[in-house]
Each structure stands twice: as structure tokens, then as C-alpha cells.
Amino acid sequence: MFENIIKEIKMASSVIVAGHIMPDGDDVSSVSTMVCGLTKLGINAVGVIDDEIPEYLQQFDFVKEYIRDFSCAEKNPSDLIIIVDASSPDRVGRVNTLFDMRRVIVLDHHSTNSNYGNLNFVDSDYASSAQIVKDLLNEMECPYDEKLATMNLLGIATDTGFFKYSNTSSKVLRDAAELVDKGANLNYITNKVLENKPIENIMLFKDVIDKMKFYNNNKVVASYVSVEMLKKYGIQSKDTPPYVGDLRALKGVEVAIIFNESEDNIYHVSMRSKEFFNLTETAVKYGGGGHVRAAGFSMKTDDIEKSMDDICKEISEKMGD
To answer: Which fold has domain 2-193?
Structure first.
């Protein structure tokens, strides 16, 4: 498959590399790494994400250097789009309106991917899309330097919870070591992502704890962040902290869920499980997707307390005692 993808890339006059809405570390890493790598190989490429990028990721200079908004894609005369880290067309925002006019390649590691490209490399054995990008660029003999290696490592580090999630395989560690050997600065990444939390995020977490509810003998925990709570601390929706990991870390918890309100009555739901519960069925049922231990979806509700109860009780029933 890499051979066919490389042929497509080399035949293209120029390339758009696009990520998904509500971008995370793997998303911006995969887009910027792909654009930087293709540029090093003499291929005209531009990165696009049709959504606001969280502030903690904007700290990385390469994000601003290699990623543009949708208007840039509209004006770009490219004949090829490479989609990274997005399991379905709706996840790329308005970029999907350009699909009819261009060839589409999909690079992804989500098991729920709908294979919507002309060429699809989808492998859930990869812990991150950034690893797929790394393997593809290596196949194309792209020369790495410290900058490229660091932006590539960002995606691997963040999508594995800095190498503590269950998707941290021996390949993950080998890939990370390879990038460190090429100059990647892991300490720089950890300082930006883990050691730079605004005090407002801690204040908001107090409110999240106040709203926290337990189900099924404390095996399931959930809470929510409302627009009102965000306004209280002057936090933008795109910068809502990923508290779901903090809830999953609680002793005895198997499934943690956070409902993040982005606008009135619209919630983006993040789910994480610890050891055994498969979240994909629940995510797909509500129009989302993801992985066995990390999945999500979006929903509209005017009664978040009831919706939270309904979904958590449904998961509790599937989980059993």
C-alpha cells in the first residue's frame, strides 16, 4: 500500500494534508510532519485543519508554520488530498467538500475508519497516526533533522499518554527511540504539554469534581464541562482541558466519561476505559468512533444530567457487575 501511495504523491502537482476537527496532539503532529517531510522531498504541500487549534498546541512553532485554515485549502490548486488521523469524512470539516475534485489518500489508525479515500492505509495496530506518517516518510527516504523528529514524536507521545497507555507497544518504543536518535527533543514536548498548565484549568477542575457522578459500584464515573463553567474562568471551548484522563486514574474506575459543551446544548463526549471495556460500540451507536480504550462522539441535549445518567447506565449494564 505504501508503494501505491508514494506513486500517487509523486504524480501530484501539489498536495493538501488535512487533519480532523477538534485537533489533538497526534492530529497536528501528523499534519505538520507530513507537510514538512514532503517539503524536504521537494513536493509542494500545505497543511490544513478546519478548526481552531488548542492553545497548548499553538505553543509549538511548527504548528503555526505548517498548518493553515480552510480558506487556504479552497484556494490551493492541488490535485491530491492526504487525510491523517480522521476516521470519517465528517471529521475533516469543510475539507470534505473538496473530495469530488481531488484524489484522496487516508492515513489512519482508528479501527472505526470507514475507508473513504481512493487509497486507504488504515491499521489499528499503530498507536498513533504519527507513526504511520513516520513509516511512510522513511519509505520515501525523507531526511530527518531535530525539528522534523520533534514534531513527529509529539503525536506518538501524546496519543500514548506519554507511553503509559495500553497502546504502548514495543514498536511505539522503538519508533520513539528512532526519533530521539534523529534529534527529537522529548523534554521540550513534555514541558510544553505536561508542565505548563494554566491556573484556570485547576480552578475549573474543582467544578468538574463537584459535578462528578459514579455508577455501577464506582466502576463508571462521569462529569461535564458547561459553557457557563468555561466563561466563569475565561477559558475558550477549544482549550477545555482533557479531564477524562484524571477521572480514569481514580482507583476502581474502569470507564471515565467527560461531556464537554462547546456551544449551547452541543456536547463533545470523551470516553476512556482502563483494562477491559470496549468503548467502540457505544461511540459508533452515537455517531462517533475511536479505539477500544479511547473513543468519543458528539451529541445535542438540553438536559445534560439526564443524558449523562442514560449513557452511563447503558455502559454499566453492558459491563455487568
So the answer is: inorganic pyrophosphatase (n-terminal core) (3.90.1640)
